[in-house]
Specification:
Number of helices: 20
Oligomer: single chain
Shape: globular
Bound molecules: alpha-methylisocitric acid, iron/sulfur cluster
Strand order of the largest sheet: 21-22-23-24-27-26-25
Amino acid sequence: MGLSIAQKIVKEHMEQGQAAVGQEVALRIDQTLTQDATGTAAYLQFEAMGVRRVQTELSVSYVDHNTIQSDFRNADDHRYLQSIAAKYGLYFSRPGNGICHQVHLERFAVPGKTLIGSDSHTPTAGGVGALAMGAGGLDVAMAMAGECFIIKYPKVMGVELTGKLPDWVSAKDVILEVLRRIDVKGGVGYIIEYFGDGVKTLSVPDRATITNMGTETGCTTSIFPSDELTREFLMAQGRGEQWRELLPDADVKYDKVISIDMTQLEPLAACPHSPGLVKPVRELAGMSVQQVGIGSCTNSSLRDLSVVADVLAGKTISADLHLVVNPGSRQVLDHLIDDGKFSAIVRSGARIMENACGACIGMGAAPSSGAVSVRTYNRNFFGRSGTKDAQVYLVSPETAVATALKGKFTDPRTLAVDYPQFSLPERFKINDNMIIPPQSGANIEILRGPNIVALPEFTALPASLTGEVLLKLEDNITTDHIMPAGAKILPLRSNIPEISKYVFEMVDDTFAARALQVQGGFLLAGENYGQGSSREHAALAPKYLGVKAVIAKSFARIHLANLINFGIVPLTFVNPDDYDKLEQGEEISIQINNLKDAKIYLQAGEKKIELCHSLSPLDAEILKAGGKLAWVKEKK
Ligand code: MIC
Ligand code: SF4
């Protein structure tokens, strides 16, 4: 049987395992990326491994999340990351150079290479045909130390694209349509691969918008073919020699296929508080809006911002709202400035923010109370904007700019202007002066500030876990619920004791104190627990508070791996209705002495509930050791 693109890349990189759905495979990793918010913990773990230099073909450390620097803490983290990069042989993308995924796509992503990044939107690089996956920082650190990355051999979902997008409808609407069809867990266990005639109508940045937000389906990654357009894009980035063609075999058989006729698509919006709650913009039209945000790793490419600039040219945004704009990279900004488009954005009244994540992760520009905020970003999880009662909608740049002009939710097709035409430059403005190449390393001192605190060490798990149900949670709990981000909490990413005080703050602000007081316990959750980001702090900080196991109906992929990495046992109900039999505050006990058995029993008073898990023998070993770092040390 023929192979898909992803299967070909897996085959080329498989060091161990069997290419059969659900089996563990160990992949050789060519490239890694980190960003500052997950990077400090990743490098603290890398340091603990005692390796002299990164073992990958290329590793890049980006600074793009924590750029507010309201005190010394962010700046100390940046300094630490820069010194680590110099010592261990990484590229360092300085603050101000742009959002990791946008910059990686422009300057480093290569078709057919494997990339893991300590950020869930790493699949952006799938836009050029790289097999790019989000992972916890510890797994990225292991890859930098030369270890393989282990995944379950995924199923492949083929998304067939036919036709051509109409005017005012763009790549964001394609991924919103995918989300409308399969929702936030429809991609779990799959790699999503795009094929069909429509592919050649989408430029690389368009494709990257789609693979970026594919993350919101819960998939392992998303990927596009590497074709003539990919070659042109890489040549325009001065990297033509890195191109290779990557197409699926003619007789490929996908595990599932969905077809999208792009000609029929219309502007779409994901409604509060889930990227999967998708509606046509025309049904929302007329709703008053208080904020518009344009940017993030999903929609801040040169195409996106050029279209926005052309629509804004000579006009002023509505007096009823604020427009904030974050260009994706310094390269994008450079073009906008030289093409005269930047002035169109500035003169329209937009507030120009840094080339960074910014409002997407609640770093500034929080909406006002109860505000409707219309954003080109990829996540609208509850509270993520920094304002609990804000209503965040996710849309294309076209819908965002139309809304910014009108002051109300606006279907861009109703604007009385011609759709701006855009083609990618034949040669991008290449200037890597904000990327520091790897240094010789030997005599470089690692610079730490007082907020960079050594990671806690965890001990081996006992045979029996006992304690109370600390919190009973519903379906689709995100990592933003578990370990919120934003301007107040992100600066604590290098300080686990401090950051752990905010675990579940948005759900129950007594959680951290209660957990510590009773020396830990259990979490009970519904489907898709831990969807969203790769932040390992959502496992590390609960572990620090004494969380022993999470019993859920199902888990999101990266979070599941993070729980195992930090010694929290992830268990599922054999009968999901048993979830209803347990209450918060109940005392329970679970025997886990033989985690290698699939069946496990939970005892709560008279009640005996059957649980199971999807742990491999290796996962079981790691958990028993108390987490991956403890396991690595045991192995030495
Ligand atoms: C996000 O979009 O949630 C983040 C912030 O980029 C996270 C990483 C983090 O929490 O640092 C992600 O997507 O993995
Ligand atoms: Fe940054 Fe937002 Fe992208 Fe996360 S989703 S990497 S916070 S821009």
